[in-house]
Amino acid sequence: MVNQRFLELYNQELRHVRETGREFAQQYPDIAARLGDFEGISDPYVERMVEAFAFLTARVQLKQESAFPQFTSQLLRCAYPNWGSPTPSMAIVAMAPSRAAAGLLEGYAIPRGTRLSSQSVPGIDGVCEFVTAQQVKVWPLAISACRYLPGRPQEAAHPSTQAKLEVTLEANTGADLTRMRIDDLCVHLTGADDVAGRLTEQVLGRSVAIRVSAPEGPEPRRFTELRLDALAPIGFRDDEAMLEHATAAFAGYRMLHEYFAFPQRFRYFRLAGAQLAQAIAKHAVNNRVNIVFYLSSSDASLAGAVDRDNLLLFTTPVINLFQRRTDRILVNQLATEYHVVPDRRRPLSYEVYDVLSLEGYAADANDFTRFAPLFAPADAREWAPSRAMFSLRRSPRLIQNLSGAQAQLGNYRYSDVFVSLVDRDNVPYRNDLAQIGGDILVTNGALPILCPKGSSHDLAMTDSAPVDGIRFIAGPTEPSSALAEGDTPWRLINLLSLNYLYLHDQTEGAAAAAVKELLSLHALLVSGRNHAHAQALQQVQTRVVTRPYPGGGPIVYARGVKVDLTFDEMPFGGSSAFVLGLVMQHYLKQHAHLNSFVETTLHGLGRKDIKTWPAQLGHKGLI
Q1: How far, in Å, CA of 116 to CA of 452, rounded?
Q2: Tens-digit pLDDT profile for residues 274-302
Q3: I need a surface site. Which of 23, 229, 323, 488 has the fewest CB within 10 A?
């Protein structure tokens, strides 16, 4: 695959040699008469020399043009850590507790970062690996029933109640619900996009009360009302991130990137706390208990459309992004950079996402030099007395020998990563090194879309756990290739100053255009997936407000910014803009400084005030 810009430069150089050569020959016929004969070259060797000269000079020009984008891309990665890397395949998987889990009264925690292997990919000698994005706590229970009931219920727990969602938990055979300490339930909302999206809005946006009670019976029902802060969304904390995220980088970009790559990963809610565990044990009857969400609005489209299959326990987002050691690379003192190859035996089975660490080894293998990344956020630097550093360059893979099953992946553009050994002044590092190696993050490229799925054992866990089977319930998504340079870096640079204070200084139209550009760029990172969601933004309004300072203690007033976002919900295909609004609310919260706050309200065209989130305190330092 030839770079189009290289072809343009080649033709330009070839035309230049022929035209200027003819002029030079006419001006100095005694010494350069042969330079004027390019049009009718009969000697094939001369013609090849001219074309080879144009080829080499075009390559020199292309290298010169790419020098500045390489510099800016390295700096941009400090602010946008994932923009220059491919977006890996993502999925949601469900784990089925084994019969051996019946005695797990405290549950069994499967930690974040657990590796899962797919079945053998047809036509490929190997499997794909996925990594869990959040902890999964497995209990010997299941959701046996779920009903969405529109209309004001008789036992309305709140004056504004207009509907309720009733979920029944039931212990598995041999388990005792009254003895379990269920203090953490993570629930994934699934099904058709319109149903799952509206149900997410109802639970996370409309809940005004939550009660735990015994299943219906002849006696008056008793209940325990949970605190509303027991309910929370999932996917916004750093320990729930799918994409690798440096601590010093801005977390809001990661959230937007994940939304446009895989919006289903935010259709989660968590019920947690000691009060939940006590209430379930207290009200369980015949190994069953009800959890009822009382909602402030009614959605008639959900009546009869919600059942137990729309709420799933023991699921987690997974991503085809994992760590491994690179093959050792022989050091040549004449080389300026080295190709990072994860596995020389299967080069098309892996694609390098990032280089985490690099070590250089001397010929006697008794000593090694640790290299730190030259361009990296401050917390990632490994400052040491040594000046040994490394920098990265990514370029499209030029040769793709795809055959058989791999031929189906032709639309995916693989890339290669090259590493240069430099010192802190970015000049070549010289030492008596014989080899280099290190830890890298890799993906399986486009192979995950070929993974077999549809059985109860789509994936296998590398560690032992009380789980009978793991299956895909959403995805794997199609990965997105690393972005070509183009004008994307300049568009990203323009957004470095974007925050809620910047929006407040703009006119209403300019603020909406800036946020729409932000959303469109993150859609571009995933090949334009869900780009219509970015274009659905219609208005952004900001104003300074004064509110009681959130939190406990004496009443203190603080100044903050109220942001109103208005979306056209037509591009969401019958679903709701709520999930994108939820992501934007957390994005804006990340911008707020200490002793200030952001209050976000989401509107839809034709339906006002979808959700107003409480004022969110800032934790960002002023300096």
Answers
A1: 14
A2: 899 999 999 999 999 999 999 999 999 99
A3: 229
